[in-house]
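Exercise 7. Given the encoded structure of a 167-residue chain, write a plausible sequence.
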């Protein structure tokens, strides 16, 4: 019974992580350029997706996240096993260290996986946006409108020196 309770948080974490997927395409909107046909837009979209994929080394954001999570778990397990063997001095210490390292490495890998996926998606989107814009298509951007013009605060200026005395 204790064995099942010890690993239930890890199982829950793995099941939750398996549910999250990152899109394998652009997450930015593009629209056909003025005077461009939809067929031309589709052809350019296909070409720009290939260009953006090449910019990130051919990996999707999901692949980057999975690679990062697995590497973190493997490194955590290895470090934990070595530390457990060094501290415990036997195979039981190594097993406890490996289990702890797997848990800590998996938790650290979750954060690293999210960051890797986000970075890969950003790089993909930048390449895709540049390509579509270069081909004459519209790439809407968000903008903010200020209700009144904002001025930076005036910098402090020392008073001018007094005028020279009359001669």
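Solution.
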């Amino acid at each position: 019974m204790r064995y099942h309770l010890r690993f239930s948080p890890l199982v829950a974490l793995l099941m939750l992580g398996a549910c999250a997927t990152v899109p394998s395409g652009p997450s930015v909107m593009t629209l056909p350029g003025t005077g461009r046909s939809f067929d031309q837009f589709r052809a350019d979209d296909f070409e720009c997706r290939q260009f953006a994929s090449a910019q990130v080394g051919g990996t999707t954001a999901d692949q980057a996240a999975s690679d990062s999570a697995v590497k973190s778990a493997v490194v955590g397990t290895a470090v934990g096993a070595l530390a457990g063997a060094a501290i415990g001095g036997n195979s039981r210490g190594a097993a406890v260290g490996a289990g702890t390292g797997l848990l800590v490495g998996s938790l650290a890998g979750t954060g690293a996986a999210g960051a890797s996926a986000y970075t890969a998606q950003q790089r993909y989107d930048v390449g895709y946006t540049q390509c579509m814009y270069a081909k004459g298509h519209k790439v809407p951007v968000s903008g903010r409108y200020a209700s009144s013009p904002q001025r930076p605060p005036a910098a402090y200026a020392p008073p001018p020196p007094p005028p020279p005395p009359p001669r």
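Remark. The chain is about 65% helix and 0% strand. Students should compare their own answers with the one above.
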